[in-house]
Amino acid sequence: MRLGIRVKLLIFAGLVWAVIFGIYSYYIYHERIEQTRRMSLTTASFLSREISAVRQYYSSTIVKKALDAGLDVTDAYHNSDRAIPLPMTFLREVSASIGAVGSYNMDMVSLNPLNPNSSPKDAFQREALDRFLGGSDTRHYIYEVYKGRESIRYMIPDVATSQTCVDCHNANP
């Protein structure tokens, strides 16, 4: 059976349309992924600035007043009527209460932690801390599957800006 010119043109047009549609779909798919990544990076940046501001305020205002009033500042504050949480304990508990399970995680890590549980837990954290120590970066992030979910992992250096923080940490042997 011989195909006429119209049928051949329709088949050709259909193939061209399929190729163009396929390329466009591929482009849109990857553009959406990049858009999602840009939005997650913006969100992570915003959250990190907000967390830093809250921690700084809590440390410089609330902790200072608590210490001046003779209260203890400890991670074991649940067992005492005269104690409030450490700034990091406060932030961990707040982040745990507002984040949906597995969608948000916040922690502080150090190459020389006061708490051994705050040591780097993986290569990403060690690499970020090494970069911060070298003074070359003010943020470090990667996109990866983390705990079974596509995630952005984002770290910023934490610098003690409150005299209350500096005094307490420098007094610790």
Textual characterization of the structure:
This protein has 173 residues and is mainly alpha-helical. Helices cover 56% and strands 10% of the residues. It is built from four helices and four strands. The protein has helices at 5-68, 87-98, 123-134, 163-171; strands at residues 72-73, 83-84, 140-146, 149-155. The protein has a two-stranded parallel sheet with strand order 1-2. The protein has a two-stranded antiparallel ribbon with strand order 3-4. β3 (140-146) and β4 form a beta hairpin. The termini are far apart. The mean pLDDT is 87.
What is the structure about, briefly put?
The chain is mostly helical. The protein has 4 helices and 4 strands; from the N terminus they run H-E-E-H-H-E-E-H.
User: What is the average of the pLDDT values?
Assistant: 87
Shape: elongated
- Oligomer classification: single chain
Helix content: 55-70%
Please list the strands of the largest sheet in the order they lie side by side.
Answer: 1-2
Tally the helices. Answer: 4
Count of distinct strands: 4
Category from helices, strands and their pairing:
mainly alpha
Main β sheet profile: 2 strands, parallel
Uncertain spans, ≥5 residues at pLDDT below 50? none
Distance between the termini: 92 Å
What is the chain-wise order of helices and strands? HEEHHEEH
User: In percent terms, what proportion of residues is strand?
Assistant: 5-15%
Using only C-alpha atoms, the radius of gyration works out to 26 Å
